[in-house]
Design a protein that fits this description.
By secondary structure, the protein is mainly α. It has one domain. It has five helices and two strands. The chain has a two-stranded parallel ribbon with strand order 1-2. The relative contact order is 0.17.
């Protein structure tokens, strides 16, 4: 698997940003390049932030339970379906749910507020 670099996805509503971003999050987790707490997916609205989480969980569930969707996800992400089996995606789903509080998925405002609140006083 290739190295996945940091990126911003800038596009209008309805162009597939959430689809792309959820695929990127799954690819990062599958690659083992990053830990859950090293991922930040930020957007402008709470609704869009919730959609990130919903899409990641749904895609992992589908890849774990549906062979056709498993193969489609592997193909999109450039993963070997023989190495990244349905059982692998089931385990990824379990880990993603277990570590969901460590992934930063939210609004830009909440992210910056958290930075201000947790920064040391001078």
């Amino acid at each position: 698997m290739k190295t996945i670099l940091n990126t911003s996805i800038l596009a209008s509503a309805g162009t597939g940003k959430t689809f792309q971003l959820s695929d990127r999050i799954i690819a990062l987790l599958a690659s083992g390049q990053v830990k859950h707490d090293e991922i930040a997916a930020l957007t402008f609205t709470r609704a869009a932030a919730a959609e990130f989480i919903i899409k990641v969980v749904a895609k992992l569930k589908d890849a774990a339970s549906d062979e056709k969707k498993h193969r489609a996800l592997c193909e999109r992400l450039g993963l070997s379906p023989e190495k990244y089996t349905q059982k692998h995606f089931c385990e990824m789903l379990r880990q993603a749910l277990y570590a969901s509080n460590r992934v930063t998925m939210g609004t830009l405002d909440s992210f910056f507020a958290k930075l201000v609140i947790t920064s040391p006083s001078r």
